[in-house]
């Protein structure tokens, strides 16, 4: 008898927080998906930090009416499609109202199909592959640009600004890097740059000496480096410099990460890359910088986009006072405001477009160099 | 021809690094018949201790004034640290299971590998750590073949370490004791060789070599990251099996072969298949000679 009583007391104690919790605190749950471990952990961590910053800003402004707090469930996808689907299922079970993510296109695509079964809105800050929005999912939004915008911009830049006649392309066989490499190949051929070769490396490689020796012997005007993440990119740039590969290196948005220069150091100097244009002089950007930098360090490629993605979602919830996906979508489609990364206005398919410009790495900084309409931005 | 020579040098460099890591696998297997899956993590830990020490030296300005001394100190301290780490890992994760089935030790090794990788990630962060790049700038130029000083340093260091290991195993008393333990633990303990000490020593030496490879990889490729141990670990394990696991000369040979095949596969066919070629060679060799190139360890070369 005593034992039973004891058990009942323990059980009661265990249950109290649940009962009380259910009655008083109401939490708005949102999810994020990005690689927090594995080779792309740094970009993935930036995405999570961007979302956290957005939540912090909203809570400072008084939160969202009807909710006591906003909670983020950050999932680790490890840039692995299987794990991405598992994360999506986990977020569905947690009953999140929306998801920011993922990073790798190869994760975003399968995860979005799982989330779509439950009509949970997904806003990707970083997946640039065309298929992300081209499948016609109703609640898929994209804050960054598309590869089929980036590839022609890169080709145009190489032709007009660098007078390139020949190009050698290297990718690492991810959905993103290979898609972009194929796009650059097609765009280059279309405007008369001769493609002298297209080789692949493996994810996780550290040694690129074989493929770079090949690049050196082919000696194209441009070495186009299409790799998933800054880390292999920095290693390749460093090795290319040490091996004396004479080609000019041009690369893409995944290298827009201050850590790239930290690793590649002087080998990074003079490398060009294409990246969505962000005006760093706007008050929105400055405000973001003030909160983000002291807490998480330098702003890298996708923190701003993740912040904007979370802002779009939270704004929509605040404006509609509901978490119904159809209402949220209607609200998101009406949006037209200056985000941190760019002006946010969605198209019918969920894309928000991006103007790709070329940057040059100079004195360890990304300096805007060329604009597709305005031409050279500086000498 | 120049192209071939350049690729040959690339292959030897990479192969030498694989060989250094493979030795740890093969030595441990020789003594306690365990595939130490945590071995790749000693390599990663070596890379990290190296970068911490060298950054410290650079910060104090010692690296500019005494480059050779700094490098020697970095190598010595790192190798010692990883040797002790490996001995500790053996004591914690493998020794209590020595009488259990092989499978439980193997699982313990896998667990240790995951634990060490994550410990490295949590303490050192997910970002790449860059090595000081001031060392060994420039290189020799023969026609269009470039050999950087850094590469010369790495190759000669590898050769020195391999020779030192051979002398240790085949010319010293400790080496005799190691080989005796590998052949028959009970018999060797009857002639008062402490098998516990020999096992610790074997783990220490193997991890020390892997740590040296870790610093060299950091110096050569410019940075280290917490998950760097996984892929080279797998490749080096393949190299050890290819050469005949348990056999020291086999591990060196296996490392060189895997490195060469990778580089030539990438250089002459396509980079995307380089791992495929390495493993095709492995499968082909094992198909015809299941014990690896240097055969099963029945003679006294086994450690």
What are the segments of chain B in which pLDDT stays under 50 over at least 5 consecutive residues?
A: none
Alpha plus pi helix count of chain B: 12
Question: Which stretches of chain A are poorly predicted, pLDDT < 50 over at least 5 residues?
Answer: none
Q: Please, what is the average pLDDT of chain B? A: 88
| Tally of domains of chain A | 2
Helix content of chain A: 40-55%
Quaternary organisation? heterodimer
Shape verdict of chain B: globular
Largest sheet of chain A: 8 strands, mixed
Cα gyration radius of chain B (Å) = 19 Å
Count every helix of chain A, treating DSSP H or I runs of 4 or more residues as helices.
Answer: 13
The global form of chain A is globular
Query: What fold name stands as the CATH topology of the largest domain in chain A?
Result: Rossmann fold
The CATH topology of chain B: ABC transporter involved in vitamin B12 uptake, BtuC
Question: Structural class of chain A, please?
Answer: alpha/beta
Describe the structure.
The complex is a heterodimer of chains A (379) and B (303). Chain A has 379 residues and is of the alpha/beta class. Chain A has 2 domains: 189 residues, Rossmann fold, CATH 3.40.50; 143 residues, 3-Layer(aba) Sandwich (Rossmann fold). In chain A, 46% of the residues lie in helices and 19% in strands. Chain A is built from 13 helices and 15 strands. In chain A, the strands form 3 sheets. Chain A has an 8-stranded mixed sheet, sandwiched between helices. A 5-stranded parallel sheet of chain A has the order 2-1-3-4-5, with helices on both faces. In chain A, helix 2 crosses helix 11. The longest helix of chain A is centred in the first third of the chain and has 22 residues. Chain B is mainly α and 303 residues long. Chain B has a single domain, classed as ABC transporter involved in vitamin B12 uptake, BtuC. In chain B, the strands form 2 sheets. Chain B has a two-stranded antiparallel ribbon. Chain B has a two-stranded antiparallel ribbon with strand order 2-3. The N and C termini of chain B lie far apart (40 Å). The model of chain B has no long low-confidence stretch (mean pLDDT 88). The chains are: A alpha/beta (379), B mainly alpha (303).
